[in-house]
Amino acid sequence: MLRTIFLLSLLFALSNASVQDFCVANLKRAETPAGYPCIRPIHVKATDFVFSGLGTPGNTTNIINAAVTPAFAAQFPGLNGLGLSTARLDLAPKGVIPMHTHPGASEVLFVLTGSITAGFVSSANAVYVQTLKPGQVMVFPQGLLHFQINAGKSSASAVVTFNSANPGLQILDFALFANSLPTELVVGTTFLDATTVKKLKGVLGGTG
Amino acid sequence: MLRTIFLLSLLFALSNASVQDFCVANLKRAETPAGYPCIRPIHVKATDFVFSGLGTPGNTTNIINAAVTPAFAAQFPGLNGLGLSTARLDLAPKGVIPMHTHPGASEVLFVLTGSITAGFVSSANAVYVQTLKPGQVMVFPQGLLHFQINAGKSSASAVVTFNSANPGLQILDFALFANSLPTELVVGTTFLDATTVKKLKGVLGGTG
Amino acid sequence: MLRTIFLLSLLFALSNASVQDFCVANLKRAETPAGYPCIRPIHVKATDFVFSGLGTPGNTTNIINAAVTPAFAAQFPGLNGLGLSTARLDLAPKGVIPMHTHPGASEVLFVLTGSITAGFVSSANAVYVQTLKPGQVMVFPQGLLHFQINAGKSSASAVVTFNSANPGLQILDFALFANSLPTELVVGTTFLDATTVKKLKGVLGGTG
Amino acid sequence: MLRTIFLLSLLFALSNASVQDFCVANLKRAETPAGYPCIRPIHVKATDFVFSGLGTPGNTTNIINAAVTPAFAAQFPGLNGLGLSTARLDLAPKGVIPMHTHPGASEVLFVLTGSITAGFVSSANAVYVQTLKPGQVMVFPQGLLHFQINAGKSSASAVVTFNSANPGLQILDFALFANSLPTELVVGTTFLDATTVKKLKGVLGGTG
Amino acid sequence: MLRTIFLLSLLFALSNASVQDFCVANLKRAETPAGYPCIRPIHVKATDFVFSGLGTPGNTTNIINAAVTPAFAAQFPGLNGLGLSTARLDLAPKGVIPMHTHPGASEVLFVLTGSITAGFVSSANAVYVQTLKPGQVMVFPQGLLHFQINAGKSSASAVVTFNSANPGLQILDFALFANSLPTELVVGTTFLDATTVKKLKGVLGGTG
Amino acid sequence: MLRTIFLLSLLFALSNASVQDFCVANLKRAETPAGYPCIRPIHVKATDFVFSGLGTPGNTTNIINAAVTPAFAAQFPGLNGLGLSTARLDLAPKGVIPMHTHPGASEVLFVLTGSITAGFVSSANAVYVQTLKPGQVMVFPQGLLHFQINAGKSSASAVVTFNSANPGLQILDFALFANSLPTELVVGTTFLDATTVKKLKGVLGGTG
Question: In this complex, do B32 and D30 lie within 8 Å of one another by their Cβ atoms?
Fold first, then answer.
């Protein structure tokens, strides 16, 4: 009994020293450059470290026949400050995750089902493309343009992980054609012709 | 034609500026604190960014009925310097990945098949345990003791990702019982009795 | 006089550019992944950078005959954001700092008095143990299990420093036996027998 | 005299402790993830910290009427390991630095001469465009698509700085059209039509 | 039309995943060790990424015949969290930026006009001095004492960039002579004689 | 027996995954920006993690009546890559560690014996000075000018720790007066008079 008391006092003394193993995001507070402020440890529950939204395929009934379901800090507050996030890719037949970058993270992709042709282009303009089967892993270096495309006739899926809780996602077509960036500037900075730009702006809801 | 030449010269000029998007490890060279030296970009192939060793279950015919198949920089040189690595967990019925830590990385686990009870203990000594189904994700903060255990009657498997190309892996039982750490020191620093320590040293091949 | 005015105006102009040499923690505000928000520089005093709690031995009248007195950001707000913290170890005769890890930092130990046997186990399961005299220094790599034990007949003490303002401290026995982690899970993940686990839970105040 | 000797011995003693303020690159040695190995401090000269290649405009007689002159680690070995690099932009009338990213760095641009319309697109697809005059500064967050275009009738120039010694440079058109990335993959991942892709591949020297 | 709707829903779904490309500082909120909290992305405007205060020379009518105009996070909130800042140096004839350090950043200097003699001293006490012309670049490693001095007969100017949004600026003479550091301590720690110290304290407005 | 074999095979399998908990410096190889290349783990011994050079006072028979004994990576290769280093300060009566900076690290000081007046000056030119007794700790933010002076009549000593294996050490007087920096430049950048500069150059062995 006495031993227990001694030990417990030791325990509490030492525990005082132990903070911030984790920092579950308080999404209502303003972000900082290092992520969201933490909720108090006393309010943290085991379920804060679990995310259940990647268990079912995303809705691929769309123009790209594909879906990206993110589990970044905004969706999965438990990984705030831990330097990791994840997402699920679903590719229906003919599905494609269009050319895109993650400005703040490298990515590891693990194929769950189907066959996926994935690739990236380096700063030196070299092309690295591979067709992957379930269980194969591919790594995409930070910030480089890359894509994933269904290489088979059935659905394909993958889980991807990033070394940032907020990797960002910049889809090339959206960046060029789905906003108010003036057609003249798109033409001038991509060498595409105005007709092509205007057509894609039309499809993607862009203006200007 | 002239245009092409102009552009190509521009291309080569600009490409000179572009180095080290990646650093595929030269495993024959001495490591540095930041990882292995890189092989020359000209020798890098698309296959360097793909790892195929996680597609099949590891051998679980062992005392823990489980297997960890790592894809760290030493196995998957393409992720050297990119701040990420991955591994596959296989848990036969009654399988368990024993209590362990990764000294240098946080971890995200995605359940592929079966049901897994996973948990970790914080510095403040709080316990966070959850039983996960396929598609569920759990995050384990850096350096904390954690475990995974098959919660079902069939096999289970998961893919895990770390935010380091060299996360390390310290298995508690091996650290305590599978080396030459003297029994007296193990007893003195864990409060286990000598009989228990010696028995486990026997099972795990430890000495001292 | 005129010179002074010119210089002072220069001084104030330049000083505007100079912020956040330090970030004394406002412990009342929610933490962020990078530490606590700062109090305003105007409220910072010289005494904020001094900690006086390590000058006297901690209370070693307990089951481990030892004490750890931390000076982490929570106790010593002046080192918030500076990437360093410190602590004092006191070991009465037979005293031991049990097997533990710091999830977020490497550690340097400097022996003040007495003789200390210290050691750590690597990810590769190698054992590094040394007995140290006053003035000797030992370094413990981040996140690895390590311990310190009084190697002499008189009291021993040491000052330790970490390269994080919040290194964390996970004591193995407390993580396993001093909380609600179910006996079944402890047994399953450590290969200890239930009797041993229950006994240590009893001593350390654990449940389950 | 005696004082000098004492002091000099102190000096040398202390200087031994002082290494690696800088790490001038040995470009002949294999890179590491943190940069090139250093040449010995004894071989370092003041001129290693100076780069003279940005003093004159780059050659803008090309299809983009523009030039980027980099001073990255490969051109300016003195900034290896220091986390900074720089470059000069020259834009003849109608000149444009086409849509591009720097995968590993944020960028600050300072306009030297002329008028430049610069902009970037965020992950959230928002457009930030401004027309800048000499002396104005614009910052481009890491990894996002951005561009610079001559907004006047005379030549324009700028100096840009990156917070990496190897920021990388990925020019969108080159990544899509100036390599062997198959037309089918470009079409599939960008929604451009094959005719457009083939035409630009022709202009830019791409194949496939 | 339907396509557009599908795509837009995709767009918004994906955009949810995209946060914190940037973190424009809310200067009214308490700083954190990683910088200021961010204003909400919806309030961010293109002008937040532009700073116009470096376009005109600073006022050099002062004792040093020189001016430093900073664009650090406090002046240019758009670069908060981006790891970069910039400043302008103006040196009238005989102007000098006195011996100083930036405790938290390395620096790249680009000469705009005139001729500047710049130099730094390493930890190993070596001196690296060069006289620079317009367009020449010099790099100053983090934390080392350095200076810039007008080497010509006309005005000189430069733009400098730091790899921190808050590099700090410690001017040697101000640190020693323009505050309340007691003369006795200055004498004792610099080997200057008290007369010199008191004289400079007088000129620079110091006390003690 | 069979169990042991199974476990051992598991052990070796898992151990393969575990690298670079530490990186004991190979001082004969060229440094990299992240530190020295590592010696092979198989050659690492427990004594590599111990440094014995701080146990006895440094020689204070010199002009400053003080000594700094460093245990940086060059002296203590075991802490290469671990982000920490340490040193011992000895101050005879009237001893002083003159005004200096560590360009690459913050510092924690723990007083061992005697009484020490220590202080630093911030970028904002504020002075933070305290007189410390044994057991008191003071923290010095990265890169700022600071000093330690014996405040008592007997010897004093302290152990200091840095959050870098290579913190650097720039002593103000040596940087200004103990090298070839021309008197004219020292005068011009410090406002000291030439007589003072020449005198100190004479004492400290400087030229120019």
Answer: no
